[in-house]
Design brief:
Elements lengths: L10 H19 L2 E3 L7 E6 L5 H17 L2 E6 L6 H14 L3 E4 L8 H9 L3 E5 L11 E4 L2 H16 L6 E5 L5 H14 L8 E6 L4 H14 L5 E4 L2 H13 L7 E6 L2 H8 L5 E4 L2 H18 L5 E4 L3 E3 L12 H7 L3
Parallel strand pairs: 2-3, 2-4, 4-5, 5-6, 6-12, 7-8, 7-9, 9-10, 10-11
Antiparallel strand pairs: 1-3, 11-13
Helix pairs in contact: 1-3, 2-10, 5-6, 7-8
Length: 337
């Protein structure tokens, strides 16, 4: 999944992009999704994009929860990973439309904070989904995977799979300053038992969680160090990009690739042997629990608070002693549920 830095938004380009984003997001959020809204309660959902399958599933969960709780869901999304300006516009539009709460997967953990503070000051309950803000208490609550644990699980798995063999590690990361990427990266290193800067880490590249960029990043890493034998990836699109690059060099059977997300496509890639293991998370649960929290707030005024762990499971068909996991049959049944 997905997310680029603020540097892309410069002067005139920033203004033009924000204008385009505003139009797109207003259109996305103009129609009611989910329940009839008979009780007049509106819940806003703002995802990073509306094309990434992870966020498509998240929206499905929110729509069903809106129906179940008798509230109206208004949705919006950035035009691309990293579109902070578009998310700010969406927040402003939703607050002006009278939403009781906003659920958001922030594109920029820090830059989104001022807009969220303004919303909260007007009495709107704000809940982060999937990715925390920086600082985390810039939202009332967080419903998300324990991303450190997700990284730690695949790190432990990779360590066990190497069975004492010297590791040459490439990390295909997200983007600078995005909390979810930092947490998964740190978790992987912890699970593998190496510190940042360890000589076994021979290459680090950002991918934005994108498959094409993941392929380019892997190609760059192989040019830098042809003996890479472990690849950590921020998500499964990046992992599949890495696999494409490895296969082009005839290395797909010689390099261990591990990842995070557990989407249906990614889990199939584990079953096919393209990815050795993945940490499966559950975006539908994040969204449905978030919608219910806003509905409860509208009914009784009690705000959700703190962090709610929505679960993570290591999925692989090559289980390793000492590392808890489920097979791909389980993973395909549960993918993103």
């Amino acid at each position: 999944m997905l997310r680029r830095s603020r540097s892309a938004f410069a002067s005139i380009g920033f203004t033009a992009l924000a204008a385009v984003s505003a139009l797109t997001l207003t259109a996305c959020g103009s129609g009611a999704q989910g329940g009839s809204g008979g009780n007049g309660v509106k819940v806003g959902l703002i995802t990073k994009t509306d094309t990434n399958p992870f966020f498509v599933k998240m929206k499905e969960g929110a729509e069903q929860a809106a129906k179940d709780n008798g509230v109206e869901l208004v949705s919006a999304a950035g035009k691309f990973d990293g579109d902070n300006a578009g998310q700010v516009t969406a927040i402003e539009n939703m607050v002006n439309s009278g939403v009781k709460g906003i659920l958001i997967t922030p594109n920029d953990s820090k830059a989104i904070v001022p807009a969220l503070e303004k919303a909260r000051a007007k009495g709107v309950l704000v809940i982060a989904l999937d990715s925390p803000t920086d600082p985390q208490d810039a939202t009332d609550a967080l419903f998300a995977t324990d991303n450190v644990k997700a990284g730690e699980l695949i790190g432990q798995y990779a360590k066990a799979a190497m069975a004492g063999k010297e590791a040459k590690i490439a990390t295909l990361d997200l983007a600078p300053g995005v909390a979810v990427g930092v947490q998964r990266h740190q978790g992987f290193l912890k699970g593998f038992g190496v510190a940042e800067g360890d000589p076994s880490i021979v290459c680090m590249q950002d991918t934005g969680g994108d498959q094409a960029k993941g392929q380019t990043a892997m190609e760059n890493c192989l040019q830098k160090s042809a003996d890479i034998n472990v690849v950590y990836t921020i998500n499964e699109p990046a992992a599949l990009g890495a696999y494409t690059a490895l296969k082009a060099k005839g290395l797909e059977k010689k390099v261990l690739v591990v990842s995070v997300d557990g989407g249906c496509t990614g889990t199939k890639a584990v079953k096919e042997g393209k990815i050795a293991a993945t940490s499966q998370q559950y975006p539908l649960q994040m969204a449905s629990q978030g919608v219910k929290a806003v509905a409860d707030f509208a009914k009784n005024g009690k705000k959700a608070s703190g962090y709610t762990d929505t679960g993570v499971t290591l999925v692989t068909d090559a289980a390793k002693t000492g590392v808890d996991s489920k097979d791909t049959a389980y993973g395909l049944e549960k993918c993103w549920g």
